[in-house]
Every structure is written in structure tokens, then in C-alpha cells.
Write a structure and sequence with these properties.
With about 130 residues, the protein is mainly beta. Helices cover about 15% and strands about 45% of the residues. The chain has a five-stranded antiparallel beta sheet with strand order 1-6-7-8-5, covered by helices on one side.
Length: about 130
């Protein structure tokens, strides 16, 4: 059963963010949220997998309806969640032929105004928030 948990609660301030994603072998995965007032950099390091879905196509059927409804009422104000037993992690476990040990991975989802970004990684992200005004 899929379970969502708010992580880094209160660290990412409310703003209208545009999303910038950089992923490279050398630098790993960086997700930047650039808002009117704040700039947030989330560094994941090496990610085993990422999935980027347009927000308009993923509100039903991709995630647990019960879990998503808990956070939808406040417009996903936490922005970053950690999932346990999510379908994306399960799918990767199936196709990795045992190379992806699900005990050692973390499944995060970042929800912005335009995207749902799933990240599968062994690492906790490093968050940096700066005021741009």
C-alpha cells in the first residue's frame, strides 16, 4: 500500500515556481524551483531513475488516490514528499532484475504547478533556499 510522507516540511516557502532540471553523470540530479521571491535548489546526487509527468495527466491512477487527496486540498504546499511502496519504485524493482535493492532506495515526488517529478535514489537530497529580492 502506497504511503506518502511530507519531508523537509516548511523548508520550501510558498511561491509560484518554474522548474529547471539538470541531470548529468558528473553532477547528478539538480532540481531548481525559481519563484518570484525564492530560489530553491534540490540536489539529489546520482539518481537511479527520474520520471517527469505533466501535472494535468497524473492526478488519478498514477498515485494512490487516498494518499494524494490528503495533500491536494492544500495544493501540495510542502512540494516534496517521500513515498513508500509507490508504483514507480515497484515498476523499477521489476525491470531491474534485482539490481535495484528496494530496501536501500528512496522514492521522492516533487509536485509543482506544472509537473510531478518522481526521483528514485539512494541518497537524501540537499536543499538550499535563497531569497532573490
Amino acid at each position: 500500500m502506497e504511503i506518502w510522507k511530507e519531508v523537509y516540511k516548511g523548508i520550501i516557502p510558498e511561491d509560484v515556481y518554474k522548474t529547471w532540471i539538470t541531470n548529468s553523470e558528473e553532477g547528478g540530479l539538480d532540481i531548481e524551483l525559481r519563484g518570484n521571491t525564492y530560489h530553491v535548489i534540490i540536489k539529489f546526487g546520482h539518481a537511479s531513475a527520474i520520471r517527469i509527468l505533466d501535472e494535468g495527466i497524473v492526478q488519478e491512477g498514477v498515485y494512490s488516490d487516498e494518499e494524494i487527496s490528503k495533500y491536494k486540498n492544500d495544493n501540495f504546499m510542502n512540494y516534496i514528499y517521500e513515498l513508500k511502496d509507490g508504483e514507480f519504485g515497484k515498476e523499477l524493482e521489476k525491470i531491474s532484475a534485482g539490481f535495484l535493492d528496494t530496501e536501500d532506495i528512496r522514492h521522492y515526488v516533487i509536485i509543482t504547478d506544472n509537473y510531478n517529478i518522481d526521483i528514485i535514489t539512494e541518497w537524501e537530497p540537499d536543499l538550499k533556499v535563497s531569497n532573490i529580492q
